[in-house]
Amino acid sequence: MKRVKYFLICLSALLLLLTGCGGKQQFTPPSSSQSIAVISQLKKASFSIADLQKNKIVSSVDLKHPLTDLIQINNDSIIATSKEGQSLIEINLKKGTTTDYLDLNKGLTSMAYDSSSHTLFVADSEKNVIYFIDTQLKKVKTTVKTGKLPSSMTLSSSGTLFVLNAESHTVSVIDIAKEKNIRTIPVLERPSGIHFDGQSIWVGGHGKPGTLNKSIYAYDPKTGKQQHEIKLGVMPVAFFSEKGSSILYVLCHGDHTLYKVDTKSNKQLASVETGQNPNYITASSSSIYVSNLDDNSVSVIDKTTFMTKNRLNVPSGPYAIVLEEKK
Fold it and tell me: What are 101-117's pLDDT values in tens digits?
């Protein structure tokens, strides 16, 4: 009996030690020559790493909480947010580790990163603020108030951060140098997805309750006036565009379709069907990647032909994607 008690005491001590290690996880790092995708999964607290040449998942890592956004801040490190966890998470691809990066608050939704100043912008949907984080010092420099439920954001090259507030149906225009919210722009109800093309702020979303919005809208960043409307598919929720390009890719999760739009002519150029309930989009030099939450897949779409060339099967509701392309 004494030996059993001693064993239980030792086991309890070991468990306490393991749970007190800051949530560090180990995984096999990808090779330096491997083109990969790191994909968060919302239906399970985990992320997966996919080999893009082989078009298959090569590892999966379990976490404490599902990840809401991913952003790469250098060659080795990806920072992740979670609505349920208190801390940002760092995924180190070189070391093959996940660790707590910086304690902030619950309700973290999305991020943007300015590489020139090494500043990470993180949206807090509970406190309704944006954290300005110095990634070299791992320290919060300041916080700036937004509207209700900041959900996504985009940066301009002139030092402005545009934050979409889902609950207050507004865009907060933040001067980064002044660390100040300088303007609030009303947009459509239940907005989702934001993009700045150098001239206009583009916003999508669900629209008024009881209706199905089928348009994206352009707003003047200085006056807040609506400039353009382009009719597309049902419920546009996410955007992607190459820097300096007038080509805008718009993801509509209501009709599970990706649209190609020219913002100079304000015309739809092409469309391609994705998987069920697509929510997130990014791109490499040759392909567009769309995560499909409800059929556990990522659609790989050729940029030139605008046709689906691959489907990557991902477990448990894929969402945010970071690509690391090797040539």
Answer: 999 999 999 999 999 99
DSSP 101-136: EEE--S-EEEEEEETTTTEEEEEETTTTEEEEEETT
The tokens describing 114, both together, are: 């300015």
Provide DSSP, 141-177. EEEEE-SSSEEEEEE-TTSEEEEEETTTTEEEEEETT
**pLDDT band, very low/low/confident/very high, at 214 (cuts 50, 70, 90):** very high
Give the pairing of strands 236-240 and 226-231.
Answer: unpaired
The secondary structure of residue 31, as a DSSP letter, is: P
Question: From edge to edge, which strands make up the β-sheet containing 287-292?
Answer: 278-283, 287-292, 297-302, 308-313
Residue 23 — very low, low, confident or very high, per pLDDT cuts 50/70/90? low
Q: DSSP label at 118?
A: T
- pLDDT exceeds cutoff 90 at 8: no
User: Which residue in this structure is represented by tokens 């150029």?
Assistant: 269
- CA torsion angle 92 97 102 106 (round to 10): 110
Place of tokens 């599902």: 66
What is d(CA 217, CA 212) in angstroms, rounded to the nearest whole number? 14
Structure tokens at 100: 């707590």
Supply the pTM of this predicted model.
Answer: 0.91
Q: Can you list the alpha helix ranges (DSSP code H) found in the chain?
A: 2-19
The gap between the terminal CA atoms of the chain, to the nearest Å, is: 63
CB-neighbour burial class of residue 34 (10 A; exposed 0-12, middle 13-18, buried 19+): middle
Q: Cα–Cα distances in Å, from 62 out to 25, 39, 119, 267?
A: 8, 12, 28, 43
Residue 24 CB neighbours (<10 A)? 10
Q: What pLDDT, on the 0 to 100 scale, is given for residue 20? A: 35
